[in-house]
């Protein structure tokens, strides 16, 4: 899948609800397995709350740090809110070594994480 | 919020308000009164069954965790983590009177840490990785990396205290057993420690421990939803009763269905029906029974903590890891070397004996010589010494809870394998507490032990948050019953309680002022 395809997906997915985006993420084994395998401390509870909107609010900073390579919290936030969705998605794909079948899920995750980052910035938290 | 089982605290969170939960449980919690099933919920034939089905799923996690030895296996890792984390905080106090928490802020580059804290971070990540392999979704670390004890030895080089050697030795003993098998025979070609299994004709996936646990809990929920339901014309469902297939949770189910050629796709299994096919009946109950038996056998690990605190464990990765157990059992059945689970398991005068004999044959396949003997031992102890099981739920220790689980299973194995023992149980076996939607806690406890139980059930998680900023937001989100302005006092209480538990001769700080301050974001 090339950059134009990711851009097109990003445009489409920015209009989706959180629920629709979560479905796209959790339906893809390769993406979810790659993320949880990289962060074994994430899966401490048995329950279907991995990758939902609450999870995104708790972990956006960790994942944005992973994919941006930045480790200063303010810089991670700046990168998260200023990057394009397709840019974030491309970084997710590259960082976790995802196959083509995981691209749309990566774009959905990028939207979820960006929303979480922007809402935290808006709240001044 | 949705329901969840916390394996660390052996607790359940319900998506119900306090009054709804109180009413559904048939108790009067404000008066300290519990219904017939204690903290558990019975079926709801009139009204919304959805919440009961959600509870059924989480209770299946709790019941299987406690009755199979998984809670004892986790106890080895949990006790080790408690000591590791406690020592990190304790040593931070050697030069200061107040420690800033979290000790290691989120997103800190490990290279920027002191040598001591770098070792702490590495040791914790390694234990986390092993915890993820045995109970979670796995890790990218190789088996060799997870079992390299030089990482832990470097940590203890900075933090050693001989008083904790028994707990350290116990963890090292577990690691030694996990290293026994030939890694090449058990792991994926890229050294991923999880077994690789086929899930359909063209695809293989790594099999995680969590997917085995989920296969069991989903199957219990499906049976309660479709096959053993108590419904009336006033039964309603506020949510779709057909479960969505969340990919990473479903690997064990897909593997069993495919490898044993059970006549159902994943969608058909989750909806308990043959939609689209020319059949009028739903999916056979036997398919679900097979899933329950296989996954329960996979979870029965040979670990037992005795009443004096000593832990008996045996086997190797093949028998101590539930994902490896499941693969070995399924492959043996596929090869004709092991019988399939008993048919019509809930009927017949010798149903319990047939099931135990089949489970024993599964244990033999994975090289587990001790597991069933542990059940027999506990059951025998209970029968000969009534004082062992006279403590109430409010007074039970974690060892008491595990023993009750083992004895309950051995007394009624069919009930515990196929129904998670919700309506069974000669000996008291309840979640440590239940958390409601508005973060109220329902916890059986006495006036004397209430605060101690509150703190000790959360100690490992709260100490993790004290040390590692990466756990801070997650932990407070999970323990929503602790208000923001009470976080530091609670961390102090946990630290002091842990100190008094681990160092019986310790003198807690008095007239000291705050022990912890919040590190600026």
**Rg measurement of chain A, Å:** 13 Å
Mean pLDDT of chain B: 92
Sheet having the most strands of chain B: 4 strands, mixed
The general outline of chain B is: globular
Ranges of chain A where pLDDT stays below 50 over 5 or more residues in a row are none
Give your account of this protein's structure.
Chain A contains seven helices and no strands. By secondary structure, chain A is mainly alpha-helical. In chain A, helix 4 crosses helix 5. The mean pLDDT of chain A is 88. Chain B has 521 residues and is α/β, with parallel strands linked by helices. Chain B contains 22 helices and twelve strands. In chain B, the strands form five sheets. A four-stranded mixed sheet of chain B has the order 1-2-10-11, with helices on one face. In chain B, strands 3-7 form a two-stranded parallel ribbon. Chain B is globular and about 75 Å long. The mean pLDDT of chain B is 92. At the A-B interface, helix 3 and helix 4 of A face strand 1, helix 4, helix 9 and helix 21 of B.
Concise synopsis of the structure shown:
The complex is a heterodimer of chains A (125) and B (521). By secondary structure, chain A is an all-alpha fold.
Task: Name the descriptors.
heterodimer; A: 125 residues; mainly alpha; B: 521 residues; alpha/beta; 4-stranded mixed β-sheet; two-stranded parallel ribbon; 49% helix
SSE layout and pairing:
The complex is a heterodimer of chains A (125) and B (521).
Chain A: H1 3-13, H2 18-26, H3 29-38, H4 53-68, H5 73-82, H6 85-96, H7 103-123
Helix pairs in contact in A: 1-6, 1-7, 2-7, 4-5, 4-6, 4-7, 6-7
Chain B: E1 4-6, E2 11-13, H1 18-25, E3 47-48, H2 50-67, H3 70-92, E4 99-101, H4 115-135, H5 143-146, H6 150-159, H7 165-178, H8 183-186, E5 196-200, E6 203-206, H9 209-227, E7 235-236, H10 251-259, H11 266-271, H12 285-299, E8 303-305, E9 311-313, H13 317-320, H14 322-334, H15 351-365, H16 371-384, H17 398-411, H18 413-419, E10 434-435, E11 441-442, H19 450-456, H20 459-467, H21 472-478, H22 487-502, E12 516-518
Helix pairs in contact in B: 2-9, 3-4, 3-7, 3-20, 3-22, 4-6, 9-12, 9-14, 12-14, 16-17, 17-18, 20-21, 20-22
